[in-house]
Task: inverse folding
């Protein structure tokens, strides 16, 4: 059994909810939790430089995608060039998913077996195989600080019968991945197994309990944000969280909207990721402390105000809504960069506010005060 490859300590806990503030120590620096991880699918957060992320936004950990990097440029090339940190010139921590979510979204291009998944590349149609062992090898070639086991991520809804079959396969794959990881790992690379079970509480509980046998450095809750109603997603986290070890980080994969982040933290989640801040930014949807702005609307044509007067990001300190609307309407690349910078800052600010509230003992009040940001601001 390998030693702990990331260390996790809890600095404060909310006595009313399951929220906790912690520190996650990796080979590439400490990370304050709860933490939101920006998604850098192709070893880049679209529209931003690594300097923007590290120096202005103070991002401590990024997520990159094994499926995409496996297909292009490939783990061998990345390893040859010094690993993902050197390849993308990123000095801080990296978490890579196993690629399972992307593979299973290719319903017409993949075939599941007990050994793994046979799939066709969306780039050129070439055939590839992901096994529990091969996805570990790829992530170790990347040099990821935190690796994920291969899992099956069923869509919503599925039958209880299929969800059980899928969960059993995910557990078998997790054990196979863990055995291979223990044989191969050198250095500070942690492996998190993923709890599945679709939207069935009994399967979630069983999966979590059986994965405890691995005594892993952390655990993830997967299979969220696959089309289920948000209350059901929160219910699955509520069900799973208490079973997972209290002294290890818990990672809810692929969540959530700004107003939902505190809800997941209240249920004991320490780590989250989501493409919404960057994807919505590119599509002209900006998150603010008072609601959402759809920048293409004519009301912003002559608006001299920043996106959010309460935000201290580079975009808000220098550019008006009118200018940003002009860039968006003109299809200028700069819009995506400025908008993404702001939206990520908004997410990171929310997480800092949540952490401060936990440390100060005021998280229940913060949770009650969270505004549901579903309407466009004036």
Result:
């Amino acid at each position: 059994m390998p030693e702990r490859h990331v260390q996790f300590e809890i600095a404060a806990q909310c006595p009313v909810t399951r929220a906790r503030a912690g520190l996650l120590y990796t080979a590439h620096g400490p990370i304050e939790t709860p933490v939101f991880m920006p998604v850098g699918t192709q070893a880049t957060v679209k529209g931003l430089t690594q300097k923007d992320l590290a120096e202005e936004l103070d991002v401590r950990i990024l997520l990159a995608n094994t499926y995409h990097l496996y297909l292009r440029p490939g783990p061998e090339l990345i390893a040859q060039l010094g690993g993902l940190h050197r390849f993308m010139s990123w000095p801080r921590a990296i978490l890579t998913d196993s690629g399972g979510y992307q593979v299973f979204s290719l319903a017409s291009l993949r075939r599941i077996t007990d050994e793994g998944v046979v799939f066709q590349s969306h780039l050129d149609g070439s055939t590839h195989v992901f096994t529990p062992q091969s996805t570990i090898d790829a992530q170790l070639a990347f040099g990821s600080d935190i690796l994920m086991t291969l899992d099956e991520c069923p869509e919503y809804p599925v039958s209880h019968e299929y969800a059980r079959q899928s969960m059993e396969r995910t557990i078998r794959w997790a054990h196979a991945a863990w055995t291979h990881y223990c044989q191969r790992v050198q250095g500070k690379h942690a492996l998190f197994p993923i709890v599945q079970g679709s939207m069935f509480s009994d399967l979630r509980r069983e999966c979590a309990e059986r994965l405890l046998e691995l005594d892993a450095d952390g655990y993830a809750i997967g299979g969220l944000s696959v089309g289920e109603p948000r209350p059901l997603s929160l219910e699955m986290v509520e069900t799973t969280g208490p079973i997972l070890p209290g002294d290890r980080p818990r990672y809810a994969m692929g969540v959530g909207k700004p107003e939902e982040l505190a809800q997941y933290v209240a249920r004991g989640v320490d780590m989250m990721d989501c493409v919404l801040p960057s994807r919505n930014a590119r599509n002209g949807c900006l998150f603010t402390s008072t609601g959402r702005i759809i920048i293409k609307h004519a009301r912003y044509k002559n608006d001299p105000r920043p996106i959010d007067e309460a935000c201290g990001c580079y975009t808000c300190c220098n550019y008006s809504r009118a200018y940003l609307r002009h860039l968006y309407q003109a299809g200028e690349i700069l819009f995506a960069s400025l908008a993404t910078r702001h939206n990520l800052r908004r997410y990171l600010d929310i997480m800092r506010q949540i952490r401060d509230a936990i440390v100060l003992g005021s998280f229940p009040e913060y949770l009650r005060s969270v505004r549901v940001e579903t309407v466009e601001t004036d």
Notes: The chain has 15 helices and 17 strands.
